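WARN no homologs supplied; continuing
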Amino acid sequence: MKTFRVVTGTALLALMFTACASPQPQAAPPAGVAAASTPRAMPAPKAAAAGNENERGQVVQEIGETAVLVTDGYDAPPTMTFKVTSIEPVECDAPDAPSPQGTAMAVALEIVTTPTFSGPLEINGQPGQISFRPHYWKGYASNGEQMDTVGSSIEHSCLADKTKLLPDYFGKDRKLNGVVILDVTTPAGEVAWIPNGIGGWAWEYPGDD
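OK structure emitted
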């Protein structure tokens, strides 16, 4: 059994990957990505305050607040830290950039993985990967209604300077500082990063730097 543990503030969400878990329905990952084993979530208090879970089971984060993820065992040291440093509307400046379906939103992140990090995804035969692509995000309007998707063709074609974008997938021993471009349907609301189908982290937007 492999433990995938998330810690932020005083909140704890433990996801257990095991071959004996019952299958749970979730969106299929992009082509070339092997889905991780089905997770199980341990119960935690429901709360909307930062550091606790909202009613969707997502850990509520503030802009600039660091989250910690553990992949080496329940009591092991952290193997990944990350934080959202800003969530801001962005004007697409790439030549012939397509128009967003809603509002192009740049989510800036700082991410560090250790040499022992092992993510839940297998990409083209390479295990231990993780992703912040729009496929792994959900959006919610201010009234709580979930958006159909936050992904569109602007994911890679919005910015003229592609070096600002996070890599699509990455694994151990990385230090990253970049953005992911989401296409949200409302100018204010929440976005949540859900790397393995359940739980995850949520941020309100627009956010203060």
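The longest helix spans residues 154-157.
OK
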